Every structure is written in structure tokens, then in C-alpha cells.
Amino acid sequence: MQKSWTNQNINIHTLMERIIKYLEKEDFDLTVYQEEKGYTIIAENSKKYDLEGGISIQIEGEPNEFTIKMKESRREVAYRFPLLLSTMLGGGYLLLKRLKSNEKYIEFTRDFWQNVNKILLEMKMDEGEGVAKPLNRG
After folding, report:
1. What span, in angstroms and rounded, lies between the C-alpha atoms of 11 and 127?
2. pLDDT score, position 79
3. Within a 13 Å sphere around the CA of 13, how many CA atoms are in the beta-carbon half?
């Protein structure tokens, strides 16, 4: 999922730092990479969200036009038996774990975008300007 903003005059580095603070508060292990046009944050191992794998968050663009992209990177588990047989042999546990991970990812996604909007609003209020409004690009 990605969201884009235009005409905002946001310091991308400060935005990245505030997103990192939010992710640390949510108990993620973080790795941050600075790239040519922004930053990539890899968030893994949150006790609160208990996801299978991690989350990749890219922040790229310029102060007046930037995009935040988020995607889940799963640890792939190979299912070698048909679903019915695997549930009888303990595969039901793996299936249940994946379903719970999906629920937590949906919860994290909702919380993340709410917090990004809150961060942008705070940054705009710090500057004494209006409210940042996202321009969704699928």
C-alpha cells in the first residue's frame, strides 16, 4: 500500500525520525537505509504485532511531494501435504498462525497510517500551517 502527498513542505528526514520513534514504541527491531531519494525502514519482531516476517517502509520524494510505501515481507513456509492431511499432522497450527499474522498485519496497517497522519499534522502545526491531506495512488 502506498500514499502520496503534494504541496506539504515536509522535512523528509524529520518524518523518517518520527516514524522510527513510533515503530520503536511499538517494539519493532529496526534497520534503516538511506537511499538516493529517501529512506527504507525494515521493521521486524514486534511482540505486539507478532507478524510472520517483517514490514518494509519506504519514504521517498521531496519536501513538497513525497510517497510512503509499505509492504509485508513474509517468511514463506512450504506446505508439502494437502491441506486436510496437514491439519491432521499439525499443519493446522501453521495455518492458524498465518491467519493470526494476517489479522495483526491488518491491525498494524490501520495503526500505522493513523500515526503517519498524526505525525504529518503535528509537523504542519509545528510550522503553523494547515493540515496535510493524502493523495492516494493505489
Report:
1. 11
2. 47
3. 2
21-38 pLDDT per residue, tens: 999 999 999 999 999 889
Question: What is the value of pTM for the model shown?
Answer: 0.76
Task: State the Cα–Cα distance between residues 79 and 17, nearest whole angstrom.
Answer: 39
Q: What is the largest CA-CA distance in the chain?
A: 62
Q: 66, 4 in Cβ contact below 8 A? A: yes
Q: Amino acid identity of 131?
A: V
Q: Which residues contact 135 (CB under 8 A, 6 or more apart)?
A: 3, 4, 5, 6
HSE toward the beta carbon, residue 92, CA cutoff 13 A? 6
**99/40 Cα distance (integer angstroms):** 27
pLDDT tens by residue, 43-93:
998 888 777 778 899 999 999 999 999 988 765 544 455 555 555 666 566
Whole-angstrom Cα distance, residue 127 to residue 111?
A: 25
**Type and span of the H or E element at 107:** helix 91-127
Which alpha helices (DSSP H) does 5-90 contain, by range?
12-25, 83-88
- Model confidence at 42, pLDDT cuts 50, 70, 90, reads very high
